[in-house]
Amino acid sequence: MRVMAQMAMVMNLDKCIGCHTCSVTCKQAWTNRSGTEYVWWNNVETRPGQGYPRTYEDQERWKGGWVVSPSGRLKLRAGGRVKKLLQIFANPVLPSLEDYYEPWTYDYDTLVKAPLQEHTPVARPYSLISGKPMNISWSANWDDNLGGAPELTKNDPVLRKIRDAAAESVQLEYKKTFMFYLPRICEHCLNPSCAASCPSGAIYKRAEDGIVLVDQDACRGWRQCITGCPYKKVYFNHRTGKAEKCTFCFPRIEVGIPTVCSETCVGRLRYIGLVLYDADKVLEAAANPDDTALYQAQRACFLDPHDPEVISAAQRDGIPFDWIEGAQRSPVWRLIHDYEVALPLHPEYRTMPMVWYIPPLSPIVDEVTKVAVDPESPESHDVLFAAIDTLRIPTAYLAELFTAGDVAVVEKVLKRLAAMRSYMRDINLGRDPRGEIAEAVGMREEDLYDMYRLLALAKYDERYVIPTGHAEDAHRLEELATDCAVSEHIGLDGRGTEGPFGADSGRGPVPVAIQTFAETKRRQQADEMGRPADRQGGLTQ
Q: What rounded mean pLDDT belongs to the chain?
């Protein structure tokens, strides 16, 4: 047994309101600079929908993740070393800008400086890539709130997998359609296929907390990592010629502060904590030939932080005791292990993702009222369980997202969430709590109450249990941070004005936000990346 610590996240999809605050704050903090105009480390998708980039879940097309060979060994779906060597200068399996979207801004100076005239001036959209006028036809959130359905939802790769009857209930019956929001970041997998795909070894998994990062100095822009990631959460910075991805806000995590997306989440749906796992079991679990068994195989890799044997082994492997205590108080561990309501996203990719989700239960009350039962009556508990089979969003769709098609696991989770609601309704209405509700889903009454507190009432320090980095590790962490940050590259002129893999590659200064077409045009024609002091208004001719 080789114990390692992994920083992980759980998102409660029942609480996501699709406000995109997490996406905007992440954009402002991490990808608000030249070369990352189209990049969203955090994005929120409406499901059913095509996602971002379009149809990223269609691995027959994009070749992401792992597959099991006839010999029982794991291999990259995109091919091994020989195939990658042949494609190293021209990777044919990459999403294009059309699959992402062409970012744009507006010529606001037309509105501000236009003279008095009969007709109101219009701010035309201009491409942030070419600087030319463009027509907006797609974006990172084009099918938000089922926009364009059913024409667009029929291209949802998950929807194609489930039976036709279930697909029709989602696509065609507009008044009965149920959507939910799916926030996505990098999964920081236990078995990352992006790292295995990188020819230069620039992507690595930090030993102390499992966060997957890109060494900007080692990256050579081969872009094999983009193909290898099945979630398509590695992006190419066309300005620097480097690959970039979500860093799990590691500078904040190291001092015990949650990620920017979690800190600013309006719905308070994100939970962050440590999970201890046995590194020796990861490969065997990922190579399980049965896709539907991968969820339980990954859970078997996690270790009970309360087990004395695990505690002893963790200390032997160099995990600080306060980190072990953090794992014992981790909300992620409780949601995955104690309550068993969190599920991984697409375990069939065999990357062992570490951002898990609690599937949505709403609008379950609507189904109860259809059978003329008062949702607040004691009899509603049995109807709640029966109504799960008739939810607007088919459980088969949720199963394709979270359990590789195993509907039974999803139904078990939804029944536990429904039992929690029914049990707490009795308490809130002044009735005696009924233990049979907890027994019906294999839980104790105390567990239902504790799960309710964690999901509905948890305070800041209960949602985020993040042990800080140790002072004795500060120098090592600083070196790792330097490897992942954009460091200065001294060019041929000795001033570091241009790196070998694109304009301003490896530059240190973080540029200002692109807000107007005028700024964009000036910066795209400039030789250096912008600085706050350089900002000017007006459209340069």
A: 83
- 521 within a domain of the structure (yes/no): no
Q: How many CB atoms lie within 10 A of CB 70?
A: 5
Q: Which residue has the tokens 């620039």?
A: 202
- Separation between Cα atoms, residue 405 and residue 541, nearest integer Å: 57
Euclidean distance between the first and the last CA atom of the chain, given in angstroms as a whole number: 66
C-alpha 447/C-alpha 411 separation (Å) is 19
Q: Please count the structural domains in the chain.
A: 1
Q: Is residue 234 part of a domain?
A: no
Longest dimension (CA), the chain: 80
3-state secondary structure of 207: coil
> Tokens 């997306």 map to which residue?
261
Q: In the predicted model, is pLDDT for residue 166 greater than 70? A: no
Q: List the Cα angle 454/420/397 in 5-degree steps.
A: 95
Q: Give residue 439's domain range.
A: 267-463
pLDDT digits (tens, 9 = 90+) for 355-402: 999 999 865 544 444 444 444 555 555 556 666 666 667 888 899 999
Inside any domain, residue 311 = yes
CATH number of the domain residue 362 falls in: 3.30.70
Question: How far lies 126's CA from each of 123, 129, 138, 526, in Å?
Answer: 9, 9, 14, 18
Tell me if 61 is assigned to some domain. Answer: no
- pLDDT tens-digit series, residues 284-319: 999 999 999 999 999 999 999 999 999 999 999 999
Quick one: DSSP state of residue 457? I
The three-state secondary structure class of 237 is strand
Judge contact between 287 and 72, C-beta under 8 A: yes
